[in-house]
């Protein structure tokens, strides 16, 4: 950390260029990354405090925006059906409904999702004769849980809190664009007189 005068904000970003020597592009990139980090933290905090029904709506909205479930109404009906044995919902894999994906969603604050929870979900998939599942949490998965998923025959995708928030941002779920700053550069081909 560099010393600051009284009242200046201290930047603790590792690898961030010194603002006095940064190019305008580097300063803009650093500012963008700081804004995105703040957004990630705020979104995750809000999700962790949300009700289970709201969290379910977020999951539905995200999966539909990612191309699952056909329409939002179809996806809502599918995920709303509560399965037994560790399945929170079912959603079409594609718009035609050729295959389905089973969903488990855990809105946990800080407790990590471990191997037993993932094993229960995998067992529930086997009971349904299913081989595809998405396990979403606002928390994180233990290394043991991730190792287990890589060893089994079922295809289970684990989406932790950070990945969930990044998917929400990429798919415009729960966020809106405030400003756009197009960055332009000289078109060298335009000024090439030999053409």
Radius of gyration: 22 Å
Estimate the mean pLDDT confidence. Answer: 84
Q: Unreliable runs, pLDDT <50, ≥5 residues?
A: 1-13
Looking across the biggest beta sheet, what order are the strands in? 1-2-3-4
Question: Can you offer a commentary on this structure?
Answer:
With 195 residues, the chain is an alpha/beta fold. 42% of the residues lie in helices and 11% in strands. It is built from six helices and four strands; from the N terminus they run αααββαβαβα. It has a four-stranded mixed β-sheet with strand order 1-2-3-4, sandwiched between helices. The protein is elongated, with a radius of gyration of 22 Å. The N and C termini lie far apart (51 Å). The N terminus is likely disordered.
Short précis:
This protein has 195 residues and is of the alpha/beta class. It has helices spanning 24-49, 52-65, 72-80, 115-127, 143-151, 161-170; strands at 89-92, 100-106, 132-137, 155-159. Strands 1-2-3-4 form a 4-stranded mixed β-sheet, sandwiched between helices.
List the keywords.
single chain; 195 residues; alpha/beta; four-stranded mixed beta sheet; 4 strands; 42% helix; 11% strand; disordered N terminus
Describe the protein's topology.
Elements: H1 24-49, H2 52-65, H3 72-80, E1 89-92, E2 100-106, H4 115-127, E3 132-137, H5 143-151, E4 155-159, H6 161-170
Parallel strand pairs: 2-3, 3-4
Antiparallel strand pairs: 1-2
Helix pairs in contact: 2-3, 4-5
């Amino acid at each position: 950390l560099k010393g600051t005068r009284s009242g200046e904000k201290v930047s603790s970003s590792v690898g961030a260029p010194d603002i006095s020597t940064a190019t305008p592009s580097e300063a803009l990139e650093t500012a963008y990354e700081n804004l995105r980090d703040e957004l990630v933290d705020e979104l995750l905090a809000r999700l962790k405090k949300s009700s289970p029904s709201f969290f379910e709506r977020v999951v539905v909205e995200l999966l539909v925006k990612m191309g699952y479930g056909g329409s939002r109404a179809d996806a809502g009906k599918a995920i709303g059906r509560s399965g037994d044995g560790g399945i929170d919902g079912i959603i079409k894999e594609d718009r035609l409904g050729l295959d389905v994906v089973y969903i488990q969603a855990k809105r946990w604050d800080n407790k990590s999702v471990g191997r037993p929870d993932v094993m229960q979900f995998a067992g529930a998939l086997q009971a349904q004769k299913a081989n595809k599942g998405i396990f979403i949490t606002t928390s994180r998965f233990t290394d043991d849980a991730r190792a287990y998923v890589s060893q089994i025959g079922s295809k289970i995708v684990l989406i932790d809190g950070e990945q969930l928030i990044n998917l929400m941002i990429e798919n415009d779920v729960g966020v809106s664009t405030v400003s756009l700053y197009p960055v332009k550069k000289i078109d060298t081909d335009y000024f090439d007189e030999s053409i």
